[in-house]
Amino acid sequence: MLSKWMRFLLWQPFALMCRRFPLWPFRATITEPVEHVTCIRIDNLLTRLLSRFGGGYDYAVCYLVDGSLVIDTGFPWARRRLKKTLLEIGADRTVTTVVNTHYHEDHTGNNDLIAQICKVQILAHSDSIPEIRFPGELPWYRSFLFGPSKIAEIAPIGSTVDTKHLRFEVIHTPGHCPGHVCLFEPKKKWLFSGDLYIAADLDSQLRDADGPQWISSLESVLRLKPAWMFDAHGSIFAGEEVVEKQLQRKLDFLVTIRERVKQHATHGQTTQQLTRKVFDRRDLVGWLSFGDGWLSLITGSDFSRGNIVKSFLRNADTRPDSEN
Ligand SMILES: [Zn+2]
Fold this sequence. Notes:
Layout: H1 2-20, E1 27-34, E2 37-43, H2 45-54, E3 61-65, E4 69-71, H3 79-88, E5 97-99, H4 105-108, H5 111-117, E6 121-124, H6 129-133, H7 140-146, E7 155-156, E8 160-162, E9 167-172, E10 181-185, E11 190-194, H8 211-223, E12 228-231, E13 236-238, H9 240-264, H10 271-279, H11 284-288, H12 294-298, H13 305-313
Helix pairs in contact: 8-9, 9-10, 9-13, 10-13
This protein binds zinc ion.
Zinc ion (ZN) binds next to loops.
């Protein structure tokens, strides 16, 4: 109760101030990697630094496709900058649909803003809708980094999403979290991959990650043979071979973790002990974080290697024999 009051009395004024006057001003970078795709990156010094540390990806990338479709809406602190950018490029007159690839706050944080300035329908997988409609309280560092979301109306996504020139297939790709979707345009072979990829060897995950599902999602997306991959944290890969190589690297990374979990999972050990064996990294960060990775260290174990290891233990194939 005390922490709730502290949050109310201290956080609310801080949040209000950050919305109007961000501590570190945000800038928007707009690129057009291919005709009909506009990539809007919003970041500042802090998110750039963290991204660099985290593996070289950006925070809050929104894609505007064919003028009318916005894929992911970024984090709430980026709101003022995003509004200015959308108005500058005239998107307020053309956008009709928003798709959230999943429910994490850095992908849904400005749904309400876009609903205010454009006449849009916001869509997400039905498994994501409860989390988007009724978001839980975020850990402090995520509130600090991304800001508090406001809730907007949202509807379940169908099997396709149309724009003037394009028709996207909605591919259900759980694993990063439940209800994750990718959008695939079969004629152009474009894949808007949300957080399916992020970085090939990102070892720390949130509690909602599911390794076995992630592996099957990657396998099904690989079968589509995408020629472009637009990642929700800014990496853009062009060329069938290049995309395949990146997706395969991610798949191999997860399969290796699965195999190491299978190899080392025995009874009588904690997740922490198992995680240390699975990753077997004897460096300073590993030592300081009890083998759980630097992200675990700075996020109070919210992101951790242990979460992905645990998700493989839920699978009968990987659990120690006597539990099968
Ligand atoms: Zn995510």
